[in-house]
Amino acid sequence: MKASNSLWKERLAGALPPELAREIDRFENEILLKKQGKIEDKVFAETRLRRGCYGQRYDNGQRHDGQTARTLEFPTKGTKGPHTLWDAPGMQRIKIPFGGLNAAQLETLADLAEEYSDGIAHVTTRQDFQLHFVHIEDTPSLMRRLAAVGITTREACGNTVRNVTGCPLAGVCRTETFDVTPYAKALAYFLLGHPDCQDFGRKFKIAFSGCRTEACALVNIHDIGLIGVTREADGKVQRGFEMYVGGGLGTVPQQAKLFSEFVPEEELLPLAQAIARVFARLGEKKNRNTARMKFLVNKLGLEEFKRLVLAERALLPEDPRWTSFLADLPVASETPKQPPSLLQINGNQPEGFARWFQSNVYRQRQTGYFTVTIALPLGDITSDQLRALADMARKYTNETIRTTVEQNMVLRWVSEQDLLPLYQELKVARLDEPGAGTIVDITACPGTDTCKLGIASSRGLAGELRLRLAAKAVEMDEAVRGLHIKVSGCFNSCGQHHVADLGFYGVSRNKGGYQVPHFQVLVGGQWTENAGSYGLAIGAVPSKRIPQVVDRVTSRYLTERQPGESFQAFTRRIGKAECKKMLEDLMEVPAHDVEPGLYTDWADAREYTTGDLGVGECAGEVVSPIDFQLAACEREAFEAQLQLERGNLAKAAATAFESMHHAALALLRFRDPGAPDEPDQTLAAFREKFYDTELFFDPFAGGKFAQYYFQAHRRRGQAYDVEGTRQLIEEAQLFIEAAHSCRARLAQPVAMGTKG
Predict the structure, then answer these.
(1) In the chain, what percentage of residues exceed pLDDT 70?
(2) Do residues 91 and 132 touch, judged by C-beta distance below 8 A?
(3) Taking the alpha carbons of 577, 581, 582, 587 in that order, is the dihedral positive or negative?
(4) What are the tens digits of pLDDT across the range 275-289?
(5) Beta-strand relationship, 485-488 and 502-511
(6) What SS3 state is found at 756?
(7) How far apart are CA 168 and CA 403, in angstroms?
(8) Which of these, 308, 318, 300, lies nearest to 277 by C-alpha position?
């Protein structure tokens, strides 16, 4: 039975850093205040996100293990009746800077996964851990237990500096310039909770790599990307970093731009601080779609952005933390536990060892030592496996463990003589999967399993592809074996589909009144050279046909590639049109009664719908997406009221307008899913399709409510006083009500009050 928060607080008294202990205490109090309705939803959402606590998608209010999700009911200001903190348990993200872990931390993660979650810890593409199905009231105890072993969840989510990632081979890599680990650690903890990093409009990501040519930490997709370089000055070798800024994936992927060819090591922290200050001051705050730093760099231009950053750097007061870590670089290096000895191979070599050795074992630059990759299907590892790995880390190494951006784990500094016995122990723990870093080692985001934004089952597809590819891995051609597949459940690229040889992201299509799960297919992204280029989108294919896509594309590559031609070069040579042509027949969707299997998603036999529509709760009724969209508009109008209560007039006015804009867009997309979402274009389309036709006209008010929307659009960005803001919010609510009425009329066979 789990110990209470108060008991864990008592047990760990004095074991936590005082500042961290106070912060967790504050969060515990905030949970209590939220239950009492004394903290608004939006405020609490931001405060929990900054501590790594996410809401989670659920199917019908049930846990995946069949237990009914626990509900916390309490009155909330501004709502009627009971409200839930989370309708079901959520997800806890746990920050692991550069992926570095020790055995005690693994054991703590194992205990927490077992006691508070479903017995599974999930490794993410940012080298974090995530625990799913965690109840909000358990999070303070969880945080205290993590803090006692040196792990924090602070700023694992939210508009903050996210986990600083680093190459898992840093310090042992054969091609690196130098070990970037201590620099990644120093910057991660310097920016953690830093006052200059608390007012971002969106998340901020940083990565370190020791070389250019490999994938390492994918520098090119980060807000700040750093590659270790050296130069000679006055006869001495000086360490520094090639710095890139403004990279990112998401809906609009953009490669980072070169900010400086050489940033001296002593300037790393202050320059990063200056960049954070410029981003906090000038970055977009209102429109989250354009709030990442890549948009600011584009808006200002690289040279102007650089000028502002250097001017900011010149104004910063000296901080001893900027360089204090440099004195500890020599003692920060890892050391082996066992002496280097040659591997003794005889006729009794275990079955599977040769394949595992080929793909999962990396020869370090230190003679006689290897880094072993523990390949984790879908990034999952059980509590028992975590404990077993902790034991192996103590037995064979000085607990030198790291997570990777490919959702795996590595054990560094394994002596060559220990590879055979280590493999045998991994096999007992079922951690001996071969194929690390190959086409079998597929990356996938949570997708529809637990993510509220998931459109298609990324984990279901990745699991199916992994099984099929693993079954033919032995006879697979080396050119195909070396490809990378990455899957995202939506366009946000959490699975990093843009930088895969074959990337897929979930979308939905309609056929004869049914929804069909699809994946958009991208080909030719580049994983190496720190995510050197992005793939080409060639069209959407039904989810159940994606294995055929993989077979067809890889077969053609093998048949038609030129000697030594990479997959990226091959796809560029044959061209985007030809890539699409080879898949066009797979894109066709037959009627539901002809091939009903296409109308279900992987790992879910039910008929597919987008979103968690509560199947079975309303006698099987399917709710149209427009109803959810209009409900979201109502929430926006209410949020405008909350902003007005706080005296934030500009934010209240902007939110009220957005609620009208989104209501108009919902109506447009009810008729045309491709309707434009840019405010001017949305208004023009709405005027043409709904106002000029009188389709929007209320039987009693005519086009009056539409005029509210037109007027609010004209006044965007202008200042409102208190009374004007209140009136705007009231008009927004009336417009949304009119949109509901219009939606009801559209559902009728003959729309009322139209010109036909």
Answers:
(1) 89
(2) yes
(3) positive
(4) 999 999 999 987 777
(5) parallel
(6) coil
(7) 7
(8) 308
Domain that holds residue 702: 625-746
pLDDT tens-place string over residues 156-181: 988 999 999 999 999 999 999 999 99
Counted residue by residue, the chain has a size of 756
Percentage of residues in the chain having pLDDT higher than 90: 55
Instruction: Classify 550 as helix, strand or coil.
Output: helix
Q: Which two tokens stand for residue 449?
A: 């399993």
Comparing C-alpha atoms, which of 584, 449, 601 is closest to residue 518? 601
Same domain as 465, residue 583: yes
Note whether residue 337 is domain-resident: no
Question: In terms of Cα–Cα distance, which of 657, 673, 679 is closest to 736?
Answer: 657
Please, is 43 exposed, middle or buried when counting C-beta atoms within 10 Å of its C-beta (0-12, 13-18, 19+)? middle
Q: What are phi and psi of 211, to 5 degrees?
A: -155, 165
d(CA 313, CA 2): 49
List strand residue ranges (DSSP E) for 177-223, in order: 206-209
pLDDT confidence of residue 353: 93
Is the distance from CB of 257 to CB of 246 less than 8 angstroms? Answer: yes
Mean pLDDT of 323-327: 93
Q: Give the number of other Cβ atoms within 10 Å of residue 415's Cβ.
A: 20
What's the rounded Cα separation, in Å, for the pair 159 and 678? 24
Structure tokens at 319: 């901080």
Structure tokens at 453: 């934004």
Q: How many CA atoms lie within 13 A of 15 on its CB side?
A: 15
Question: CB–CB of 494/505 below 8 Å?
Answer: no
Taking every pair of Cα atoms in the chain, the longest distance, rounded to a whole number of angstroms, is 90
638 C-beta neighbours (distance < 10 Å), count:
17
606 part of a folded domain: no
Phi and psi at residue 678, in whole multiples of 5°?
Answer: -70, 130
251 band by pLDDT with thresholds 50, 70 and 90 = low
Note the pLDDT of residue 252.
64
For 74, phi then psi, to 5°, come to -160, 150
Q: Which residue in this structure is represented by tokens 């274009």?
A: 681
* Global confidence as pTM: 0.77
Residue 338 lies in a domain: no
Considering its fold, how many domains does the chain have in total?
5
Structural contact between residues 233 and 214, judged by C-beta atoms closer than 8 angstroms: no
What is the token pair recorded at 633? 């508009």
Partners of residue 33 on adjacent β-strands: none
Closest CA to 243 of 266, 216, 262, 215: 262
The first and second tokens of residue 667, run together, are 């109506």
The CATH number covering residue 215 comes to: 3.30.413.10
Neighbour tally for 189: CB within 10 Å: 15
The mean pLDDT of 706-726, rounded to a whole number, is 89
- String of DSSP letters for 479-548: HHHT--EEEESSTT-TT-GGGSSEEEEEEEEEETTEEEEEEEEEE--B-HHHH-B-PEEEEEEEGGGHHH
Decide which of 538, 564, 599 is a domain's last residue. Answer: 599
Query: Are 325 and 177 part of one and the same domain?
Result: yes
Check residue 439 and report its DSSP letter: T
CA-closest candidate to residue 67, choices 83, 82, 89, 84: 89
- Report pLDDT digits (tens) over 33-78: 888 887 777 778 888 888 999 888 755 333 333 333 333 332 232 3
3-state secondary structure 282-342: HCCCCCHHHCCHHHHHHHHCHHHHHHHHHHHHHHCCCCCHHHHHHHHCHHHCCCCCCCCCC
Q: Are strands 165-166 and 409-415 parallel, antiparallel or unpaired?
A: unpaired
Distance CA 437, CA 485 (A): 10
Is the Cβ–Cβ distance between 602 and 463 less than 8 Å? Answer: yes
The residue written with tokens 């009903």 in the block is 596
